[in-house]
Each structure stands twice: as C-alpha cells, then as structure tokens.
User: What shape does this take?
Amino acid sequence: MSSFFPDALLLARFQFAFTVAFHIIFPAFSIGVASYLAVLEGLWLLTKRQVYMDLFKYWVKIFAIAFGMGVVSGLVMSYQFGTNWSVFSDKAGPVVGPLMAYEVLSAFFLEAGFLGVMLFGTTKVGPRLHYVATLAVAIGTFFSAFWILAVNSWMQTPQGFSINEVGQFVPESWLAIIFTPSFPYRLVHMLIAAYLTTALVVGAVGAWHLLRDHDNVGARTMFSMAMWMLVIVGPIQVLAGDAHGLNTLEHQPVKIMAMEGHYESHPDGAPLYLFGLPDQQAGELKYALGIPHLGSLILKHDLNAPMEGLDTVPRELWPPVPVVFWSFRVMVGLGFLMVGLGAWALLSRLFGKLYSQPLLLRTALLMGPAGFIAVVAGWITTEVGRQPYTVYGHLLTADSASPVAAPALAASLIAFVLIYFAVFAAGTFYMLRLMGHAPQTDEPEPSPAVPKRAAGLMPGPAEGPSNLSR
Amino acid sequence: MDLTIVWIGLIGIAILAYVILDGFDLGLAILFPFFRKRQDRDVMMNSVAPVWDGNETWLILGGGALFAAFPLAYAILMPAVYAPVTAMLLGLIFRGVAFEYRWRTERLRVFWETAFTGGSFVAALAQGITLGAILQGVDIDGREYSGGWWDWLTPFSLLTGLSVVVGYSLLGACWLIMKTRGNLQDKAFRLARGYGIGMLLCIFAVSLATVFLEESYYHRWFDFPAILLTSQIPLLTAIAAFALFWALRKRRDYAPFLIALALFGLTFAGLMVSIFPYMVPNRITIWDAAAPHSSQVFMLVGAAVLLPIIIAYTTYSYWVFRGKVDPDAGYH
Assistant: This one.
C-alpha cells in the first residue's frame, strides 16, 4: 500500500483543489449578487424608480441558478474532508468542525429558508417582508463567508489550541481560534473580491446591451453602478491586498518568498521581480527581470531592508514556487486592470461619455470573467503557498490524507471532472442566456417560469411553466 | 449531564430529520417513471420545489455535526464508505440542478428529468449502502480505517441500499397522496400499496439479516430481559403496517404519510438498539469518538440558540405550504 501512497496523496490533493476551485466561483458570485440585489431593492423602496425593480427581477433569476450550483458543489466540499482527508478530520476536527457547524446553522439554513420568499416576488408578499428576505439571504452569504474564512485562516495562522495525547488539536480559546491574525485581512480581501467579481459581471452584461442599444435604461443603470463599484472598491482592494501581504510576511514568510520568487536572500534590499521562470529543482529564478529594492519597499516600506529567501528554509518545507509565483502575478495583474477600468470609466463619466464609447464598453465586456479568474488565482496563491502544511507549521499535508487506495481516488476524480464540466457548463449556459436578454421595463418575475425552489417563510403556490424562455 | 449523549441525540435528530424530509422528495423523484404526463410531472416537482433545499441542508448539518462532535468516527467511517458517499454526492448534484434546469430548456427537459430521477435513485441507493456498510462493521488499525475500497460492497449492503430506495419511494408516494388529487392521487394510492408491501418485506429482511450479522446484535435483541423492551419495536411496526394499509384503503389524505414517517422512526429506533453506544460497531463507542469537551460546549451554545429558530421557520414554511398543489396554477 505504501508504495503507491504518494500517488494517492497527489490525487487527493488534485481532487480537492479541483472541487474547491470550482466551488469558490459560485459563492464569490453569490455573495456579491446577493448584496447587489439588496441594494437594488433598497433603492427601489426608497425611490420607487421602476428600473431598480426591473434590475432586481433580472438578476434574481441569474442568482437562483448560481445559488443552486453553489449549494450542490458546496455539499461535495462538506464531505470531502472525511473522504479524502480523514486524518486531518480526526486531528483538526475538534477545532474546525464546530466552526463549520456554525456555518450550517447560521448561514445555510438562513439562505435556504429565505430564498423562497426572495424568488417569490414582490407582488405576493408585502414589499417589507420581501425586503427582509432579500436582506436575510445577503446576510446569510456573509455569515457563510465569515465562518469558512475563519476555518481557512485558522489553518493558515493557527492559534488558541493545545495538542492532546492522541495528537488532536484541542480548542483552548475560541476567540483566539476565530480571530486569528490573518482572519480580518482574509475576510476583507475575499468580500471585496466578491464585490469586484460581481461588479465586473454586471458591468459586462450592461456593456453588452449598451453596445446594442445605448438607450436601454436598465443597461445604463447596471453599467453605471458597476463602474462606480470598480472606482470605489478597486483601490480599496489594492490597499487591502497590500495589508494582507504584510500580514502574510509576518506570519507566513515562506509563502511570501514563494510569491516573490525569492529563492535567495537579499541582505541589502530585495528587488521586485516582474518576470522570471522559477526553477524549483535548481532553486533559482531564471531569466529574472526585477526592479531593484522595490520588493523591500513594498513589503517592509524601506528600500534597503534585508529579505530572507528560501535558502534559509529546509527544502522539504518549500511550497511549489512556480505555481504560487504565477498565480500571484495573475491575481495582481487582473487587480490593476480592474482599477484601470474603473479609472477609465470615471474619466469617461466626467466627460459625459460613459455609455457611448465602444472601446470602453468592449473592454468592460472582455473583463467580465476577470474577477472569477482573479479569485481562483488568489485562492491558489494562498492555499498552495501554505504547502507543505494543512495546518501551518503543525500538520503536514502528507500526514493528513485518508488511507484510501489510489484507484478509488482516480476513479472519483475522473467522475468529478466529467460531471462538473457537464453540469456547470449547462448552468453557465442557462445563466448566459438569461444575461443575453436585455433588461426590460416591467421585467417579468421569475415566478411564472420557474418553481419556487426553496423553503421559504411563505412559499407561493406551485406553478407550471407558462413562459419558459426566461 | 454527559454532553456526548446530548450530541449523539442531536445528530440522531438531524439524521432522522434528513431521512424523512429528503426521503420523500428523493422518493418522489424515483417515482417519476410511473408518471408519463408532462403536467403530472410539473405538479410532482412543484410539490417539493419549495422545500427540497431546506431538506437537504439537514444532510450537511448531520455530516458537519458528526465531523465536529465525533471527529474520530467521521475520520474512520468516511474512507470506509468512500465510494458510496462519492456516488451519493454526484447523484445529489444531478438532482439538485435539475430543479432549476428542467424549467429552462424545452429540448433537454427529458434529459434533466432523467437526471432528476437517476440522481435521486443513486443518492438513495448510496445512502442505504452506506448504512449497511457501517452496520456490517469496518476494519480499523489504530485511529484509521484499514480495509479496502470495495469492502462496502456486500449482499447485506445491497439489501440495505435497496431497502432505502423502497422506503423513500413509499414516503414519496404518500407525500403525493397528501399533495395531489384526481388521477395523480389514484396512481399514488396504488404505488403506496405496492411500495408499502415492499417496505415491510425490506424491514423484515434487513432485521433478520442484521440480527444474524454479528453475534452482539443478536444478544442485544434477544437476551432476557432486554427482549421485553426490544420486542416492542417489531410489535409497533406491525401495528403501524396495519394502520398504513387501513389508511390506504380508506383513502385518507394525511394518515398514510404520517404513518410512513412513524415506520421510518421505528426502523431508526431499531437501528439504535443494534448499535448504540457504538459509532463504529464493536470498536469505537460514542465516548471514544467524542470531540474534546470545549468543542462540544462551544457548539452546543450555537445549536441551542439556532436550532429552535431553524425549526420554527421550517415548520412555518411547511404549514403555509399545506394543502393540495393546484395543477392549474401558473396556466393563466
């Protein structure tokens, strides 16, 4: 059994990475859209302007599909801890298990409970109760992010525990476990990422319809709102990301070395490498192109601050540098593009040309999926950068896996890949088709076409498919 | 008070809640092939569409609470039932998205209906197989599972798998009796009779097989004086069975579903007799597997506050949604 165990470990890691990378896309989107829906409905209640309600009804249909995919892919995650990482489950379960149980109790039931009312439409319950439901769903997505990032942050910067005689992590202080040093940074960075992701999608949909018809009121409103979001939140994200980086340098310096490509130490100030090919075997960054001293300036706010490199760390504790190095650059690069798009849109707005510049609209369209890519890249940076540990500094990934044979892992991996691509491609297609319809005045409710699919406070009567097209 | 007992009780409630709640909506999907008409299928799906999402959340709670309160049991059992649990998850993906997708395509409607039925069948079968695989015992070495990845597959686990499919189908048929009228309801009555007989046969077969599976199970059921208590379960099951067929004959709307729920409760009680206080039969007790006291306390605070709220709004949603599904709603 032990002869092929390394393969089993690799397969288990690959399967987990694949299913998480897929899953993270849906919550990233639904956190943002849930808040967007709450804002739209709130604006409608305040101003009674028809366009806000139309946009609400437009996006709530897309939200329903994304939410459904998030639910089923999340169900998979909740059981993979046991199937693929049983030793981790045994050891870390006493700490991370309760946090995840809190997520189910405070978030999942809340979302499932109020989604029905939200999809149910404003005509059937009073607008106030409906707004309570929309807020409840949005708050549910926050609670969910709060707890799952608490779990993740604890795995990155663990504290507040002791280890008992059988090797389990025993909670000593729940406050210390929940509020680990990296948690606030991670939570803020992720929530803003969700907002940016949603803004880019909303902006792309708006741009698509503006390219066809610049007078469409719904398209103008969504494009304008999305661009405001980029302008305001984009720069905040750059600051939040910088702060998170400093926090990581303090608590997980090896991860920073991998992100920066610092195989060697820089006693007189480190460069910022813009490009290079990390060679893990040789332990060097080939064809490195860097700006001298900028790395030290960014990370230590001092041009000549010394930076240690991976040469100070035992080789078996190195994370896979090429993956981390590149995923980090993808995330940062896209982040700056987002800020650039926001600035361009702001300028255009000042000159009164926000809706009429085809190049801006096309760029916004092209940037539609950028948030998803950046979120997945950021996730890869932080998770792969944590290697070779599952619980940083305490439990190695190699010591976390289930005693499951490689063929079982290979078979399930293939099944997951095939089914995820088929099922989620279909869902994406249905969402894109909804996005392909221009938003209309008196946008139809989702109710005539789709069933009320969730347990709600006041679910409506079941209905048939009277107009399937939307 | 022993918190471990409190937690096993709470997890028991979560699992039973899941089995009876998702049981009927999975069972209803398994019955789809018996109904050919488009409109019947619309009504069937709409009768559970408002509640399935909440129902399935109990599965996440059951698994999550097991992970949190009994991490060792979770760590040993999950690799042991790796294949059926994976199959269950994949089945639930298909049937879960079918609720949304079926309404969004005319061309592929039949495909997503098949996914709805097939996914539900696989999920139900896999849940039954998982139960059987755990009941028949798993190999352990230290704190780890040490068996192979096909150990779950035995005639016994296939029998429990089939039994769960039949039991869920009975729940689904009884749910339909409660929620529909006319031809659809007539058919549901016929299906409920057939699956009612099927479920009794399954209960009988699984009980017999379980008792002779392990010597310890036999003693738990038949040693004096325990038998005075344990014999109540088959007795009550027999009474419930008579009541079920009586209610079906009298064409009662609500009684069949409630009695079917009672039958599930009784089989669950029977299961408890066989394995309590073990979590891994004859190897790991609930106290061996329990998480440290600090974990149990922390979670109990949340459960005590949040579970009553959850139960309140879930109950209310079922209450609001009571009564028959109107097949004409939506065609206006």
Remarks:
- Chain B has a mean pLDDT of 87.
- The CA atoms of residues 237 and 263 of chain B lie 6 Å apart.
